[in-house]
Amino acid sequence: MKKFAALLTLLMMIGCTASFAQKHKKRKKNKSDTPTEAQLMAFKASYTKLLGDSLQIPREKRDTVAAMQVQFLLKRMKISDDKSLSKEDKEVRYGMLENDKYMHLGAILSMEELQRLEAFETRQKKRQKEMEKERQDQYNQQAEQRRQYNQRYNRGYGGYGGYNGY
């Protein structure tokens, strides 16, 4: 009877694990990186507010510029998600997309407004690169500290405990 109960318990555990794995796999497969409509609307609203507050773009142009920004953001995401493109091809397409974006914005905004928008985006990109570099430096510093710790206590380099091969 004990063997039967143990076997039954084992089979139930295997079944539960398989069921969990299937659910997790389905959830992962259905996950999409495309933003929801609510997220797009929230981005558009905050971008419209930014255009008015920081860049003093006239009210009648804000919604159009924000809608174009959302449209180009979605195109950029499609390029980013395309696994068939190499990094260099993606950079070329990003450049072409930026040129196209500024061409369309140039038809809506005055030269002064377009220059303010470009300067703002340049500052944002620079700030983003600085933050990314800072994160990478912090990661490298932590990795170096882990490496020194492991080396000091001979972990992961063969041997046992404090034995250093002498």
What does this structure look like?
The protein is mainly α and 166 residues long. Helix content is 80%, strand content 0%. It has five helices and no strands. The chain has helices at 2-30, 37-53, 59-81, 87-108, 111-152. α3 packs antiparallel against α4. The radius of gyration is 27 Å and the shape is extended.
Fold topology:
Elements: H1 2-30, H2 37-53, H3 59-81, H4 87-108, H5 111-152
Order of helices and strands: HHHHH
Give the overall form: extended
Distance between the termini: 56 Å
Major sheet: none
Low-confidence stretches: none
Helix content: over 70%
Oligomeric state of this protein = single chain
Number of helices: 5
Tally the beta strands: 0
Average pLDDT, rounded to a whole number, is 80
Helix/strand class: mainly alpha
Any idea what the radius of gyration is? 27 Å
**Proportion of residues in β-strands:** under 5%
Protein name: DUF4890 domain-containing protein
Organism: Arachidicoccus ginsenosidivorans
Signal peptide: 1-21
Region (Disordered): 125-166
Question: What are the defining features of this structure?
Answer:
166 residues; mainly alpha; 5 helices; 80% helix; extended; DUF4890 domain-containing protein; signal
The gist of it:
With 166 residues, the protein is mainly alpha-helical. 80% of the residues lie in helices and 0% in strands. Helix 2 (37-53) packs across helix 3 (59-81) and helix 3 (59-81) runs antiparallel to helix 4.
